[in-house]
Design a protein that fits this description.
TIM Barrel, 35% helix, alpha/beta
């Protein structure tokens, strides 16, 4: 039974002229902010791979030339179009689907990938094999990705999509022995795109060693702060220009490794107050406001040649009231209107915002017809595949739309293959970036109240709050700095959502709990709970390092930009 079916409108030739003109006008002069870095949102100081240039080519369903500005060369795109032309309808339908599976045995996924000709698979937390001590079994993980890649790549000369969510902080499917990372808000607090660039390069180098080809990061959402229930410290901050510069740095860093970044979640999940995993967020802002705030980081990423952008399950009242952007032609028109020519991938289709409204298979067919190129995690991938095949056969999905989507996906993976080269990083890359992670925490450490220099603690401190693991890591870092933990000033660690009082109060996730916390000496935003984050904290507390970070969001009555510098 089909429930609340959204109308299918032909959205496979997007980017209307009026929207392009409006976008250019809205993205003209960047706003200034105390925490804005000195460069423009699209500026870069890196020699990292960029878009492949101004080569002109024809889209798969049009005779009009378009600029191929998002990664693949003209030859790679032509090869992709030829490959798709030689596919059966069933093969094309599989090429636009990414499956998920349950447990650590991929046998079902391997068989399904071969039979349905799937583009690839995503690894979720329950798919990660672990040793008896609870850490990631990296050899087994690499063996799983290899099996999945071979199954999806059978008979093809381009790689499979082997994907994962590895943002750092709250969203990280893989833990130790891989390097542990602070929240992305750390990079926003540093105000330095190079910090984001180095972190993403390091994260994705370790993923490449395990056989991953796609990472669903960075999160380009501009958060509204404490009222944002979903993104919060996953965001680089609440200042659009700052978030844009960090997004550009993150995209550059990822591309140097050959692991393709996915910029998410257009049209912006940081400024809505419903979690799309649970229900449908409704965005009430005008298109003009969205361009000025939420869309600026996406625009910057597009100008940098981002190969893939994720479409969120967010209903924008000014575009298509009540309809998730992921299944709305107007949503894809808005994205293409910013100049994006790469692969538009949906957010996971098994989330509440979609499952509450659409029957199995229906949403995937709607998303493809609306303008999606890749469908991520249909609740029932068999039903999704069947619905796409049936839609093309009955004409509700134009065959050109499927050809366009499959061509983009194949071209993207040929591009990924050329970026990655023949030699993947060895297993020695795993866990080898602790210094980069600690450096990111040191660059973002922010003092909201208290001294900015000089020793704040002596030879001993006490610790309270946080989790048992937080306190253990705090004590270990104290010991590495020759500080005991039996007496002295009280350091209170704040878990997300928890306030507290002490001599020194330290937030470990987002900084908002500090607004309701009291400290006799200092209030500090650390943005992370990794071993490296605690080392950075003690470097500051013992006067071995400054606190260069500035708030990337408003906290209580303290504006973005608050900090020692």
């Amino acid at each position: 039974m089909i429930r609340n079916r959204a109308p299918i409108r032909m959205g496979f030739l997007p980017a209307v002229a009026s929207l392009v003109l409006m976008t250019t006008a809205c993205f003209g002069a960047p706003e200034e902010s105390p925490s804005s870095p000195g460069q423009s949102a699209g500026a870069t100081t890196s020699s990292a791979p960029k878009a492949s240039g101004s080569a002109k080519r024809k889209s798969p369903q049009s005779t009009e030339p378009v600029s191929l500005s998002w990664g693949p060369t003209e030859e790679q795109y032509d090869d992709a179009r030829t490959a798709v032309a030689n596919m059966s309808l069933e093969e094309k339908a599989g090429q636009v689907l990414i499956q998920f599976y349950s447990g650590t045995n991929p046998d079902v996924a391997v068989e399904r990938s071969r039979r349905l000709h799937l583009a690839g698979s995503i690894i979720m937390g329950d798919n990660v094999p672990r040793t008896a001590s609870g850490v990631v079994d990296v050899e087994s993980m690499a063996a799983i990705t290899e099996r999945l890649a071979k199954a999806a790549g059978q008979g093809r000369d381009w790689p499979a999509v082997i994907a994962i969510d590895q943002e750092g902080g709250l969203v990280a499917r893989l833990g130790a022995p891989l390097t542990l990372w602070p929240t992305p808000m750390t990079y926003g607090a540093s105000r330095d795109p190079d910090v984001a660039r180095r972190a993403q390069q390091s994260i994705n180098e370790e993923l490449a060693a395990l056989g991953f080809t796609v990472n669903f990061a960075p999160d380009a959402d501009v958060t509204i702060g404490a009222a944002d229930p979903t993104i919060r410290s996953r965001s680089f901050g609440s200042v659009p220009r700052l978030a844009a510069s960090m997004t550009v740095g993150a995209v550059e860093g990822a591309l140097t490794t050959g692991v393709l970044p996915v910029v998410k979640h257009f049209p912006g999940h940081g400024s809505v107050t419903t979690n799309s995993h649970l229900g449908l967020p409704v965005q009430q802002a005008s298109v003009a406001k969205l361009k000025q705030r939420d869309w600026r980081p996406f625009k910057a990423a597009i100008e940098q040649g981002a190969p893939m952008i994720m479409m969120g399950h967010i209903a924008v009242e000014a575009l298509d009231p009540g309809v998730p952007a992921s299944v709305s032609p107007d949503g894809y028109d808005a994205l293409r209107g910013l100049g994006f020519e790469g692969v538009a991938v949906t957010d996971a289709m098994n989330m509440g915002a979609i499952q509450d409204q659409y029957a199995p298979g229906e949403a995937s067919a709607l998303a493809l017809a609306a303008g999606a190129d890749l469908i991520l995690m249909p609740a029932d991938v068999e039903a999704a595949h069947a619905a796409i095949v049936a839609g093309v056969r009955d004409g509700s999905i134009p065959s050109q739309r499927l050809d366009e989507a499959a061509t983009r996906v194949v071209a993207m993976m040929k591009y990924q293959q050329s970026l990655a080269g023949d030699a993947a990083p060895g297993m020695g890359a795993i866990g080898s970036h602790q210094d980069v992670s600690q450096g990111a925490s040191a660059a973002g450490l922010t003092v909201l109240e208290g001294p900015c220099e000089g020793a704040i603690v002596g030879g001993s401190v006490r610790v309270a709050g946080g989790t048992a693991q937080d306190r253990a890591r705090f004590r270990a870092a104290a010991a590495r700095h020759d500080v005991s933990t039996g007496s002295g000033p009280l350091v209170v660690l704040l878990a997300p959502g928890a306030s507290g009082s002490g001599d020194i109060v330290v937030s470990l996730g987002g900084p908002w709990p500090l607004a309701a916390s009291q400290a006799s000496t200092s209030r500090i935003a650390l943005y992370g709970r990794t071993p490296g984050a605690f080392d950075a904290l003690f470097d500051f507390l013992t006067s071995n390092a400054p606190a260069p970070g500035q708030l990337p969001v408003e906290v209580g009555n303290l504006p973005a930009g608050t900090g020692c510098n």
